Amino acid sequence: MHVPDGFLDAPTSIATGVVAAAAVGVSLRKARDELDDRTAPLAGLVAAFVFATQMLNFPVAGGTSGHLMGGAIAAVLVGPWTGVLTTSVVFLVQCLLFADGGVTALGTNILLMGVVTCAVGWVAFRGLQAVLPRTVASVPIAAGLAAFVSVPVASLVFVGLYAVGGAASVPFGTLTGAMVGVHLLIGIGEGLITFLAVGSIVAVRPDLVYGARRVVERHELVLRSSGAGA
Amino acid sequence: MSAGTSRRRVSARVVAAAILLVSLLLAGVVSFYADSDPDGLSKVAIEQGFAGTETEHATGEGPFAGYGASFVDDERAAGGLAGVVGVLVVLGLGSGLAFALRRRPEPLADAEGARSGRAPA
């Protein structure tokens, strides 16, 4: 969903740039609390994985493709604030080095595919964790479902931006239907990739996954307080 | 001692190496087989008739623009090289940022007052 130059007018692009810069600024402060000896080495790797996976467009309906956005997976693996930073690094490099996503649209892309998907992904993940069984096995399921939700929401935010500052006049309802429709399908891919990737890491080292920490620590407490294991 | 250690624990270094290897393989090799159809937004822009409002990209002439190394003739190698370069650049920037921001053990804070309640491992 990389927005190119020219889709949104200058005032809207400047506004998204300001909002994105503010979000990155806040994340730079808040990420300090997430980045410890376990998450810090992972953060760069998660950024690299998101970059690699974004190169892999998969087919969705009718001659259309989609790729991972990555906010939800990053938020679950390294924390939501660090997630905003890691995805922002990806969009910055894609924009400057690979001419993917407009230079004037960098703020828009960081906002849509970084900030929105991290925020929605993390909030949905925490919400699902509250209702699913508190086990390590629930973590990839909650992550996958949260990732699925984050994609159509990001496409809705794009529609909102386009309604405010789109270069062409497109009927709002038509654009909403088209964008949300295709991004529901892309969201399925996002959910599957997130489920598999989070599941792989959780299977070997749940303690390395930021979103699994409460579950892991709770289990250790239960086991310790109930004596010698099992 | 605890449930986490009943199985042999995979070291964090192995996990890190596996993520890097998978990322390099995906970007360097698998990306060649990615679907080249327009993505969701591009397709909608074409169908709704606003794709033409896209303007020229300021870095569109760069050596890796469009995920292909312009100085390599073979398409597969050009895309693979671009992918590997991208993974390494993103890894470098992301790791640099993360390590610059990371919470360091506070040697000046007295042990009693440490808020984490957990001594450095």
TrEMBL record, chain A:
Membrane spanning stretches: 40-60, 72-99, 105-125, 137-164, 184-204
Coiled-coil regions listed: none
Subcellular location: Cell membrane
Keywords, sorted A to Z: Cell membrane, Membrane, Transmembrane, Transmembrane helix, Transport
Pfam families the record matches: CbiM (PF01891)
Gene3D superfamilies assigned to the protein according to its UniProt record, in alphabetical order: 1.10.1760.20
Chief localisation class: membrane
Record's bilayer topology term: Multi-pass membrane protein
PANTHER family for the chain: METAL TRANSPORT PROTEIN HI_1621-RELATED (PTHR34229:SF1)
Protein name: Cobalamin biosynthesis protein CbiM
Origin species: Nocardioides marinquilinus
Organism ancestry: Bacteria, Bacillati, Actinomycetota, Actinomycetes, Propionibacteriales
TrEMBL record, chain B:
Coiled-coil zones: none
Ranges that cross the membrane: 12-34, 77-101
UniProt cross-references to InterPro entries, sorted A to Z: PDGLE_dom
Keyword field contains RNA-binding: no
Residue span, PDGLE domain: 15-103
One Pfam family per UniProt: PDGLE
Locations listed in the record: Cell membrane
Name of the featured protein: PDGLE domain-containing protein
The keyword Membrane appears for this protein: yes
Principal subcellular localisation of the protein: membrane
Keyword terms, alphabetized: Cell membrane, Membrane, Transmembrane, Transmembrane helix
Organism: Nocardioides marinquilinus
